[in-house]
Amino acid sequence: MPDAGYWISGDRDGLAMQETSSGQPETRSYHKPVMLRECLEGLRIDPQGTYVDVTFGGGGHSLAILEQIKGGRLIAFDQDADAQREAEKINHRSFTFCPSNFRYLKKYLKLHGVSRVNGILADLGVSSHQIDSAQRGFSTRFAGPLDMRMDARATLTAATLLATYTEAQLHRVLGMYGEVRNARTVAQRIVEARARQPLTTTQQLTDLLKPLAPRGKEFKYFAQVFQALRLEVNQEMQALEDFLHQCGEVMATGGRLVVMSYHSLEDRLVKNYINTGNVEGKLEKDFYGNILRPFEAVNRKPLQAAEEEIENNNRARSAKLRIAERNESKVKEHE
Length: 335
Known about the structure:
single chain, Rossmann fold, DNA polymerase, domain 1, seven-stranded mixed beta sheet, 15% strand
């Protein structure tokens, strides 16, 4: 499937690293992380600072951050067991890995004795490793089970969702998270099909969708449906909301929040939070008319990957990068 252009995901895989005798990280190629230079510039790394990569994936961004840290610290998060195995390859005194969803940011920072950080990086979406693993069921390119769990310990799979959600619930998920125009019809067909036979594989689902897809846009349509199911299975939008609202509480004055998203739903939440201090986008002002928000946008419009990078990594095509800085004048007002 040409979902390299349509599949909404982040290629977060990167490098594996061992610390040399000189204390410097030594890296080897794995996959190229998206917009690496822009992310590092956005973080404006202080070698003595404390940074968080809440989407470790294959470690590409994390390892590049570690290369710039001298006396500082990097704390990485990921709920995926494969990401944890990649993280275990890193032998660096400045690195700490948290096997958790980033919605528990504050909890794990406190657990590791951290109250303030100087920068947070979030590369949202699915890692290329997850997409390219047929057994994970994230992509329509491969025949595999309808799983789609980022955390294999979770109980809800895409197959379970399709088997147990009501027609109304399916309609809501497909319309809200996939922006599928004929979501009601798709929901109805799913309910009809599962009465005859359980939907358990990616092939069964795409076969069901083929007659409903706009001609010439089948792959994009499949990706929208798969995205909707993935977001619901992993509660990704709720986790993103939880995460964003904690960023202002743990970020030191002048610290940078760098978030890369791959579809409009994520980007809208990030934009709203940066501009208004909440994901709903509701402006709150103080007595003097100043907007009460913990961050100020560094780039008013999201940065996008250069054409050269897109040519080398088509998954960078959908990436939108927003950067914000902790506003000193708002620290007192929020704490």
